[in-house]
Amino acid sequence: MSFNNIINFHAHIYPENIAERATQSVSDGYGIKMDYNGTLEQLIEDGKKSGVTQFAVQSVAVTPKTVQSINNFIAKKCSENPDILFGLGTLHPDMENPEEEIERCISLGLKGIKLHPDSQRFLMDSDKAMRLYEMLEGRLPILMHCGDYRFQYSRPERLAKVLDAFPKLTVIAAHFGGWSLWDLALQYLENKNCYLDTSSSMMYLGQRRSKELIKAYGAERMLFGTDYPMWNSFDDIEMLEKMELSQNEYEMIFRKNALKVLNIEEESK
Ligand SMILES: [Zn+2]
Largest alpha-carbon pair distance within the chain? Predict the structure, then answer.
């Protein structure tokens, strides 16, 4: 089976002049060699090799003062490439006037928000973060980085608490709900109201366990993503294709769930 029109829901991009440096710093932080340099150009090239035609692009503000310029950058890239990009904005719990920036994100055409408690250094269930969820509930979906055994910030039990507090909040829990904490994530998130993405996980879990997790959560909750520039898309897509899921499950994971989350209607072909 081979798929086209795949959406990569988890792609970080950086302005050309800092892409190399930003990518290197993520590489150092995780001790993982990156497949790409973090530019939009290479992201598109990667997609061409594996049937990925659209991307949810994002960039995380590690300090409040960079929020606006990053949102401007993402919005600009999206308006230059409207057919292939969906933009996710950034916010920071310590910023002044998040409400105003959320309004600005919406008016810039951004379709969601990416948060990264580990690199932004906030506890996912802290009061100041809860304030953001309250503002976003019913307005924009959140792609949430989840899990890292080295940190307390984004542990699965914190996400479970957030989801209980905000039943109408749309959250896509990245990395099968908890990078390096995959079983703990299943324990806390199996029956919660959230989506999950497949990024940065299957190369650690292996095909058999990855499939078990997809089945446990249900394909109707899973979105394909690669965590560009970290990994190429073809290895993960190849592994997914070998799982022998149903046509319907593949369509949900590769495309339909992403469109649903982004609130985009598409004519059925
Ligand atoms: Zn990410």
Answer: 49
